[in-house]
């Protein structure tokens, strides 16, 4: 049976319209107000606590978005307020609390490294992209997939490497949303990095949305890597990390959320996607 593919992948495109047309003047005004109010607070203990909890929230939600682990909002809030401690995860079913805590700490280390990267005024490169993925998945051993017969299988997770097999998600109606084929990912990512470097005059929130969307088109909706790259763009304006509660972005035609995606032998990858 031939699969319906209403969305075919295409080589990466720059902005469809000048980025200045996508910018919202009120966001720049709000950023200026935020910066004015922030300055007298930066040396206070409360400000340090706020930022620490914000980064914990980012680290926790990054794995929840990809269903690397699952637990309710109560557990999330407790971890945000008290710290990443396996002893606090008493109601997470059959999941190993120590492994979950280790994965969250990997996310936390990644975002700390991300801010160090930005403070050093380093440019985004393919090498850094792969290093970031390896750090985010340091304690993740495998990825869950569906084989051609619909059976769940565990596949080794390739850390710090581009995907080696197609990973085209199925939409709810059974049709396929096609992502960039593996053999084209490396040159497409080189093009992505080059275009990003040419966008120095774009508004931060617009460029962050463009970078996130184009990255997911190349590789799949890898929430962890995509959110980290978005965070990499936003610190230039000294703004907050992107979170699940504030993820509005310009209408860039983002792809639908995946249900399944291809893996070796036409298996469908579900978690732990390569960059």
Number of helices: 8
Low-confidence stretches: 235-242, 245-274
* Strands side by side in the biggest sheet: 2-1-4-3
Number of domains: 1
Question: Would you report the number of β strands?
Answer: 4
- CATH homologous superfamily designation: Fido-like domain
Q: Estimate the helix proportion, in percent.
A: 40-55%
The profile of the biggest β sheet is: 4 strands, antiparallel
Look at the helices and sheets and give the structural class: mainly alpha
CATH architecture: Orthogonal Bundle
CATH topology: Fic-like fold
The level-1 CATH class: Mainly Alpha
Structural commentary:
- By secondary structure, the chain is mainly alpha-helical.
- Helices cover 44% and strands 5% of the residues.
- It has helices spanning 25-38, 45-65, 73-82, 97-119, 126-136, 182-197, 204-219, 223-233, and strands spanning 142-146, 152-156, 262-263, 267-269.
- The longest helix has 23 residues, at 97-119.
- Mean pLDDT is 79; it is low at 235-242 and 245-274.
List strands and helices in order, with pairings.
Layout: H1 25-38, H2 45-65, H3 73-82, H4 97-119, H5 126-136, E1 142-146, E2 152-156, H6 182-197, H7 204-219, H8 223-233, E3 262-263, E4 267-269
Antiparallel strand pairs: 1-2, 1-4, 3-4
């Amino acid at each position: 049976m031939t699969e319906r593919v209403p969305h075919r992948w295409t080589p990466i495109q720059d902005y469809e319209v000048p980025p200045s047309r996508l910018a919202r003047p009120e966001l720049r005004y709000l950023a200026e107000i935020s910066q004015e109010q922030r300055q007298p607070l930066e040396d206070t203990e409360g400000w340090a606590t706020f930022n620490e909890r914000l980064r914990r929230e980012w680290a926790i939600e990054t794995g929840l978005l990809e269903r690397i682990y699952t637990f309710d909002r109560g557990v999330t809030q407790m971890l945000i307020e008290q710290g990443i401690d396996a002893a606090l995860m008493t109601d997470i079913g059959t999941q190993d609390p120590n492994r979950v805590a280790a994965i969250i700490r990997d996310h936390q280390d990644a975002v700390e490294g991300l801010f160090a990267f930005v403070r050093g005024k380093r440019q985004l490169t393919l090498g850094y992209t792969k290093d970031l993925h390896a750090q985010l998945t340091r304690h993740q051993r495998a990825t869950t997939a569906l084989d051609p017969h619909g059976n769940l299988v565990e596949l080794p997770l390739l850390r710090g490497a581009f995907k080696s097999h197609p990973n085209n998600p199925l939409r709810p109606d059974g049709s396929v949303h096609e992502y960039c084929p593996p053999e084209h990912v490396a040159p497409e990512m080189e093009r992505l990095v080059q275009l990003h470097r040419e966008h120095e005059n774009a508004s931060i929130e617009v460029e962050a949305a463009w970078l996130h969307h184009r990255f997911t088109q190349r590789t799949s909706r890898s929430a962890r890597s995509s959110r980290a790259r978005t965070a990499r763009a936003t610190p230039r304006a000294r703004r907050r990390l992107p979170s699940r509660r504030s993820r509005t972005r310009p209408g860039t035609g983002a792809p639908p959320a995946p249900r399944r995606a291809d893996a070796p032998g036409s298996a469908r990858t579900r978690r732990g996607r390569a960059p």
